[in-house]
């Protein structure tokens, strides 16, 4: 795991967003607004790194799922991905983002944990996305 964060802390951080994820999935306008703000935040993060480089694919997966274009993914995967994205955008982190050098460790840990959980589904989506010419 990331510096001074246990796997349990990271798992709890991810799971804490499940209820909010379900609420967002039931409100398309709010979800669109959330994903827009997330895309803006990703642009501001210096040296995004390998783990956060999957965030645009995760955003795309959620968008295509909600639009009904890609539905061959378990609902639990969508909840986990959206929860990780909520954590990434949240102002309340285990480690505040404004701390130089370490501020994004917890974000990377939560997103990385989520990717580990749902990697097969993300990979399947990415193959589908490429076949559709959506890249």
Structure in words:
This protein is mainly α and 135 residues long. The protein is built from 7 helices and no strands. It has helices at residues 7-15, 18-25, 28-44, 49-52, 55-66, 75-89, 105-131. Helix 1 (7-15) packs across helix 7 (105-131), helix 3 packs antiparallel against helix 5 (55-66) and helix 6 (75-89) crosses helix 7 (105-131). The mean pLDDT is 84.
Offer a quick outline of the entry.
The protein is mostly helical.
Oligomer: single chain
Uncertain spans: none
User: What is the tally of helical segments?
Assistant: 7
Strand content: under 5%
How many β-strand stretches?
0
How far is the first residue's CA from the last residue's CA? 30 Å
* Largest sheet data: none
Structural class of the helices, strands and pairings?
Answer: mainly alpha
Order of helices and strands: HHHHHHH
Mean pLDDT: 84
Mass-distribution shape: globular
**Share of helix, binned:** 55-70%
Query: Mind telling me the C-alpha Rg?
Result: 14 Å
Give structural attributes.
135 residues, mainly alpha, 7 helices
Helices and strands in order:
Layout: H1 7-15, H2 18-25, H3 28-44, H4 49-52, H5 55-66, H6 75-89, H7 105-131
Helix pairs in contact: 1-7, 2-6, 3-5, 3-6, 5-6, 5-7, 6-7
């Amino acid at each position: 795991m990331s510096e001074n964060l246990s796997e349990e802390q990271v798992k709890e951080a991810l799971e804490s967003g499940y209820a909010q994820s379900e609420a967002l999935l039931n409100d398309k306008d709010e979800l669109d607004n959330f994903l827009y703000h997330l895309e803006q935040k990703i642009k501001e993060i210096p040296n995004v790194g390998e783990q956060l480089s999957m965030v645009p694919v995760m955003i795309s997966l959620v968008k295509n799922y909600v639009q009904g274009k890609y539905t061959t993914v378990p609902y639990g995967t969508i909840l986990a991905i959206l929860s990780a994205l909520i954590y990434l955008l949240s102002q309340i982190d285990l480690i505040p983002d404004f701390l130089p050098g370490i501020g994004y460790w917890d974000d990377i840990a939560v997103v990385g944990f989520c990717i580990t959980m749902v990697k097969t589904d993300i990979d399947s989506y990415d193959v589908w996305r490429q076949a559709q010419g959506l890249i």
